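Reopening this ticket.

The earlier resolution said the output was attached, but the attachment link was broken on my side. Pasting everything inline this time so it's all in one place.
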Amino acid sequence: MSSGRRGLALCTVALVAASALLWVSSGLVWFRVTAQVPLRGPVPVTFTGAQAWPPVLGLAPLTLAGVAAVVALAGPVRRLLGGLVAAFGVWAVEAALRGLFGPHPGPLDPGYPSPPPGVDVDALRDQPLVATGAPWAAVAAGLLMLAVGVRVMSRERDLPRFGARFTVGHDRPRRPDQDRAWWDALDEGSDPTATNDPANDAGTDPRPPA
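Inline output:
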């Protein structure tokens, strides 16, 4: 396997792994918090990745679609795709690290996950969000996407192009059309079946003696 094919294979495998990590991370618990509900006391509340950062749900299938795109596209369009993949990877890493290390929003701030039924926002006041290790899966996915994007942008010429073996090179010399050449010769009044044998031009008989 050539280095270009190996690089393209690594890019596709990395994108599939990144998509799987994002999908798994969306269903894992990112945050835990204890709500103080009247008449019920402390109630544990959990928020999954899809609740804490909803774009992760759309980013997973989008990354998987990038597998087909990176194989099918070529040239500047594929470089542009690499830039988009890298940008989405940085976005995923930033969002996941913010979930891990904060600062975390409060119940009344934009970006705070919607509480489950039966839990009021007031019950979550002054209750800090506690992050789990689940966002690290999104961090890994984002780093894979960033690596693929940088590889595609910097080494696009080395990556094989889909259907290149079926592409006809326009710089290849074309074979002359024999029929058209004969018709052109007839239009000029010459015999297209005449040979260019020097013996014929000298007036000698090319036939062997009897």
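Reporter confirms the inline version is readable. The chain has seven helices and three strands. Helices lie at 3-27, 49-52, 55-72, 76-101, 135-154, 178-187, 198-201.
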